[in-house]
Fold:
Amino acid sequence: MTKCKSSSQNIVNSLIEHVENNSEITIKPAAYGQKNLSSPLSPAIPNENAALCSDRLFLLWVKSFRIVIFEALMSEMEDKISFFQYLSKINTFFDCCELEMLILYLDSPVNFPAHEENYKNHDHLSNFSKNLFPEILTSLPYALMLLDNNYNICMINFAAFNFIHSIVPDLSHLLKHDNVTPLADILPELHEHLTLIKENHEKEQTFSLTLPAATNNDKHKIIVNCYRLRNDKGIYSATLIILENLSDHKEIEAQLRYISFHDPLTKLFNRAYFEEEMKRLESGRYDPVGVISCDVDGLKVVNDILGHSAGDTLLIAVGSIIRRCFRDSDVVARIGGDEFVVLLPVSNEEIVKCAIERLEHAQQNYNENFPFSPVSISLGWSIRDNAQSSLSQAYKDADYMMYQFKPWSRDVFSKKFFELYKKVPDKMYLKDNSKSIT
Structure:
């Protein structure tokens, strides 16, 4: 292997040239979602020079594979919450792949086979490389800017333009191709930090800034990733800026937290949250703690006879009935297929019994209002009134009581279900029923 002048360095040099010549500003939206990705991204290049294009082909693969996975997810996942949960992780993975390629173009030399005669005439490849870096920069969903050595904005992608517009409402001067836009005129706080980096001769740095919003009193907290670029003489001549909005990160974290602690079907808390609350309430600070165990009667029968869509309608209805009968401070969770549990902090026996009466009354009202979608819930309860006994034992006691009534309650429901099924099978457990009470 012979180390030749790398395509990566050619791209950096072309960018430096772009900066030093004050070329016009480029604002181009990302090209995601294009169905025909091969035509604009794969020019005809001789096979012997394919090594010079491997990075470009990799980016083409990343974009194509991203779209393929999205389409596969959309076709396989009916549950939108699960889809967006995986969508966030997949987007992050592919964004990191493309950003990693971007950094490779800045720092890494490329080794080519020792056949220099194959590369004697590659002017068309050099020109090809000159356009590659701006294409990568504009296609990434991250907010990216390219600055010259005096911190004038020479290139800005669509994501960065939109982000800066949320801070500075008037960006008309950014669209004037014959003018140089100083960073200090738009983001003076960022310009001040970059000046310190330049004085300290640092190649790269990551720091945070708080910037005011353009239209209200809110503030944007952002992470700034700064990379200084050298030309072929080893002199720093440009700076690449990557901006990340921490507010977006917090929104994603909040969504992921909601997904991780909630049941997607009933929107109640899930087993993970229930177990965390059990640990919290175990301390004794909230004694006495009531535990109510709830089990849906006949779910298997409904699933087997009418299908899982009807079973989902039944579960949604039960979840809504239970939720409406308890306080905001109570923990209502679906912890299994047909299992629901309620934790009632600071609740003695009288409070727990009143809650069970409300639940039985709500179940009766629902069955009167929706006779074609009957529900039946087996109930058991227990109290943990001092720290000497465990909350886990109280839950077991409530579960045990529930199972004492379960066989009778299940038989009554099954009899009612089959009588109804003989008369109006097409009207049972329609989705409209569950929507009307949620």
Remarks:
- The CA atoms of residues 6 and 110 lie 5 Å apart.
- Residues 391-423 form the longest helix (33 residues).
- The chain has two domains: 2-251, 262-437.
- Residues 2-251 form a domain with the Beta-Lactamase fold (CATH 3.30.450.20).
